[in-house]
Amino acid sequence: MFDYPKRVRLLRGMLEKTRLDGFVTFFSPHLRYLTGYSGSNGLCIVTQSDVFFLTDFRYKEQIQQEVTCYRPVVTSGDLIEKAAAGNLLRGCKRVAVEKDYLPLGQFQELRSNFPEVRFVPTAEYVESFAAVKNDAEISLLRQAIRITDAVLAKVLKIIRPGISELDVSAEISYYHKKLGAEKDSFEPIVVSGSRASLPHGRPSSKKIKNGELVTLDLGCIYNGYCSDLTRTVAVGKAGAEERKVYDVVLKAQQLAIDSAKNGISGRELDGVARKYIRSRGYGKYFGHGLGHGIGLEIHEAPRVSARSLHTLRDGNVVTVEPGVYLPGRFGVRIEDDIVVRNGGCEVLTTAPKTLMIL
Fold first, then answer.
1. How confident is the model at residue 71 (pLDDT cuts 50, 70, 90)?
2. Where in the chain is the domain with CATH 3.90.230.10?
3. With 0-12 CB in 10 A as exposed, 13-18 as middle and 19+ as buried, what is 154?
């Protein structure tokens, strides 16, 4: 399904561009992207002439199915020590490591086992090309999104006064697996009433009450690829200001979706939604970025925020999720997943966005 050698060639192009001799990663999403491996313990070394993949005995049978382009090395000992014993970085003087994902202990162990190598902390090597999804990846993302859309429809049927946020969260996780996902892509967010002003509030034992807004943020993983969906709904009824804020957030989101296209910067796109929310008097209550890329990670490049340095390109799949949070009162967030292409974007999420009164 995926051309792993092509991905390695793109990585080698990055190494050549930055005059580095090799690349080392332990980061699970990047191991999967470069080799197909979905386990939890692995090491991939890419040089201009070789690709080495190391893991432990627990995954001996699994890698026979997953890592088909390269010859894996299975060891019962430490992966770094095994790489050093095999002299797998021979001829390399300057080797890239991922500063955002490499623990200090592993960095020190690399330096200790390869004293002749200078390890250079780098950022966004794999992300620079992994952010552009091909048709096969978009198909998997579409299926993950389809599952989450279906889970939302099921969960909306059980939300009522008296059910707890934790109960709703548990149902989300159950239905994700029931409908074919590997697992949640993050812990579901279910917050109600005054707790809905917490953008990333964790579900609690609080019982949902009549007249409250409930924000649900959920996503799953399907064959490694993530979905991300947020809807805010009302239970029983919605007050005038709740409806007003909902309409502001919905309009801001639609303006941003309409503006998403190849060549627009993440900062510009964020500004489209932020400007509208500010014009309606709620600017100081929108305190996070508009969105982020999704793929093998739930948060990846490109970023869509006021501080973003990324530019959207065809093939990017990103979230668009403006929100307004009134402290101690309520909050509203609406989130869809989109793919940039054909001079604009396609909204992959299909869940309804009109304010639902349950």
1. confident
2. 135-347
3. middle
